[in-house]
Amino acid sequence: MELRPRFALKNSASSREPSKWGGSRRQRVLVERTVHWVLFACAAVSVLTTTGIVITLLGETVQFFGEVPILDFLTGTRWTPLFASQNFGVLPLVNGTVAVALVAIVVAVPVGLLTAIFLSEYAPGRVRSVVKPILEVLAGIPTVVYGYFALQFVTPILRGIFPQTQIFNVASAGIVMGFMILPMMASISEDAIRAVPRDLRQGAYALGATKLEVITRVVVPGALSGILAAVILSISRAIGETMIVAIAAGLQPKMGFDLLSSMETMTAYIVQVSLGDTQQDTIEYRTIFAVGTLLFVLTFIMNVLSDLLVRRYREAYE
Amino acid sequence: MINLRVGDQAKDVANVDQRDGGAILATTHLSFWYAKFLAIEDVSIEMPDRKITAIIGPSGCGKSTFLRCFNRMNELIPGTRIEGDVMFRGTNVNDRSVDPVEIRRQVGMVFQKPNPFPKSIYDNVAYGPRVNRYQGSMDEIVETSLRRAALWDEVKDDLKKSGLALSGGQQQRLCIARALAVQPEVLLMDEPCSALDPIATTRIEDLMRELREDLSIVIVTHNMQQAARVSDRTAFFTLGEAGAGVLVEHDETQRIFTTPSDDRTEAYITGRFG
Amino acid sequence: MTVGDPTMVSNSGHAQARTRRRVFGVMFYALTIGSTVLGIVLLAALLIDVFADGVNQVDAHFLTSYPSRFPDQSGLRSALLGTLWMLGLTAILAFPIGVGAAIYLEEYAPANWVTRFIQLNIANLAGVPSVVYGLLGLGLFVRWFSLGRSILAGSMTMSLLILPLIIVASRESIRAVPDSLREGAFALGATRWQMVRRTVVPAAAGGILTGTILALARAVGETAPLITIGALTYIAFDPQGPMDLFTVLPIQIFNWVSLPQKDFAYLAAGGICVLLMVLLIANSLAVFLRYRMQRRLQ
């Protein structure tokens, strides 16, 4: 009990008719508190999602490693879990993933960076306001459409140039994936380039540098950590991309870098098993969680790295 | 269950004497910090009921901060700290048992820049009564409030129009009408005319003189002529030696502008400083 | 003439160097234009290729028939219905949670480690590959919640996938509401929730809706997570409720793409035309809403 009387505000008797103003304080506080907790719960869903991902992946993965030694998984070069003689060396899938990602990066990084330089350094405002939304469309196209395009359009062209090209091949999937990633690469690089202060450029111009020299010696080096962040994020996206490779890169887990041949990526393997009739609680079923865990860890590390780099350039210039 | 609004008639009657002529707002040894920065230091003042009190002083001396202490608007900014007492009708507004929502319903505020909601004129005025669950006729309270804010004749034919479609001066009167609609006892005005042209300013000043019949007004202004024109009492703030805002003196407006007791006040109002 | 010895550089050398620098500059400029155009050309090639192959497929029969092993009898009916079901359920699940989370983070969250942890989670979730969400859905919703390969399990998976998108867009939109409106509401005695519900949310509604529509468009195009949770590729009935088995447009397209006969590839192209039209409608709606709400706030 409080010692002093509870506070009550008085109404001005002349101007205010008290009976017409409703709403008790207790009710108000109750509503506010309830709303607060409901909204907090909404925000907490993200934490639960992460927890759910980690628990789901780890639960099955731990059981998987109960049967397959983790070292065999990480260093083995034969991946045949769906065959009678099972091998669980994940390296062929990693090899395929890296091969496709490499092709995608070789396309996305130079094209994306040059596009970013054009948009930020050369393009007049009106051109930019037209080009940017068009590039955004590229990012909005469903990946299954890219897969179709790779298989039905790019692969025939490749086969025309290199007759030995297989129907399912790394190059076609990688090239198309590069264009899918391109808008993101261009957009993050452009942000980084725009963050380079104007006076740095003007200082270089004052020393008689040409535009090209300013770009290559001042702007790009100044934006390097941001551009690097974009590259890493692009790699992360390429590793995690699923449908393009599932459609166009094939399902043959193998080592090597013959880009015109078929390879299987980690993501494509998950799709392959999901489409099949693999029984739950078998080791074949658990392989997709083990592969998924590896995928999650790899992309997570790269996303964090990219985030750190973005922060660095923000701190440097803001 | 304690209802803060109903059943206080008896006390109201008992307090009639106190209401006329007594202090409606007061602070004692009030200091205020934004994080580590001391914004106002040791201010003690009393403001009488049904009067217009002007707060003047050079910019950056904490006038607005001081004003916002009375309806606890400062606590919306994280990291602020308050010391000393802020009294409204003899009650410490910062007391733990006081709901800030309740305070703000009795102590209205008009801001420096007109800030009507992106809603119709009607909905702008009805906003306060609605959030306060007003049971009476909404049309009536909207009309009364717009009339009291001298805006009714200009807008009565298109109450559905967006509040943002009005001119700056009309927007500010809409904001006043909006504040009046919850029938506050005090109106805090934070440089309400600084964004307005002279004609719109005059209209608001006339309006303030009319409103003084029913409520107390505290106005922060950087315009000394305005303080002299409209206010009954004036408080002069300046930057103290510690870099925080301090109250130099407060008195009848006439006396502040003719025979101030402090040299700093005289320097300020004669334009030698600030 | 020795390079690097300034005393030896003649006037003509200067002029030569200047010309060379200018030529390099022009070449580089052309290269940047070429790169930019390359992206646009590829987009054009993709659209032309798809529409050339597929637009003839799209007719009433195609939209209203079930898939079949005979290409000329095959249609999108079950996939379209499945997409609509999933779209509706995902919207119902993701919209309130996403907007609620955004409101919490912008209007309620104290600046402490819990808030920072939540924000870190959202940022990381935005970068998790979609197929991993599929594994989450498979382990959590399909198996643990025993929802099976149902529309509901798929929609819950999709909701988690697009939540970060809705949250980020809604937060941006809420942040754009000027503080003066919040102060105005508080000063009238509004509680925080009244202020949010009556002032902030209406003012931010345009951006929130735009962001949600774009996020839902993303969900319509996603394939991998639904394949992973086991959405089927061949459904020859109309889904009747959220617990039914289902397929969606991109999965049907994937199914057709995977078949070796050329006729099915044309069907896939037809399906892509329909899918792109759906996305075009969604995006136009988003642009239109953004434009209208921007005008209202002026």
Keywords:
heterotrimer; A: 318 residues; mainly alpha; MetI-like fold; 73% helix; B: 274 residues; alpha/beta; Rossmann fold; six-stranded mixed beta sheet; four-stranded antiparallel beta sheet
Q: Would you give an account of this structure?
A:
The complex is a heterotrimer of chains A (318), B (274) and C (298). In chain A, 73% of the residues lie in helices and 0% in strands. Chain A is an all-alpha fold and 318 residues long. Chain A has a domain at 94-265: MetI-like (MetI-like fold), CATH 1.10.3720. The two termini of chain A are 53 Å apart. Mean pLDDT of chain A is 89; it is low at 1-15. Chain B has a domain at 12-115 and 185-269: Rossmann fold (3-Layer(aba) Sandwich), CATH 3.40.50. In chain B, 35% of the residues lie in helices and 25% in strands. Chain C has two domains: 6-57; 60-297, MetI-like fold, CATH 1.10.3720. Chain C starts with 10 loop residues before the first helix and ends with a helix. Chains A and C meet through helix 1, helix 3, helix 4, helix 5 and helix 6 of A and helix 1, helix 3, helix 4, helix 5 and helix 6 of C.
- CATH second-level architecture of the domain at 94-265 in chain A: Orthogonal Bundle
CA-based shape of chain C: flat
What's the assembly state of these chains?
Answer: heterotrimer
CATH homologous superfamily annotation of the largest domain in chain C? MetI-like
Number of distinct beta strands of chain A: 0
What structural class do the secondary elements of chain A suggest?
mainly alpha
Distance between the termini of chain A: 53 Å
> For the record, what is the CATH homologous superfamily label of the domain at 94-265 in chain A?
MetI-like
Which range best describes the helical content of chain A: under 10%, 10-25%, 25-40%, 40-55%, 55-70% or over 70%? over 70%
Mean pLDDT of chain C: 90
- At the first level of CATH, what is the class of the domain at 94-265 in chain A? Mainly Alpha
Relative strand content of chain A: under 5%
- How many domains of chain C? 2
Return the CATH topology of the domain at 94-265 in chain A.
Answer: MetI-like fold
Strand content of chain C: under 5%
How many alpha or pi helices of chain A? 12
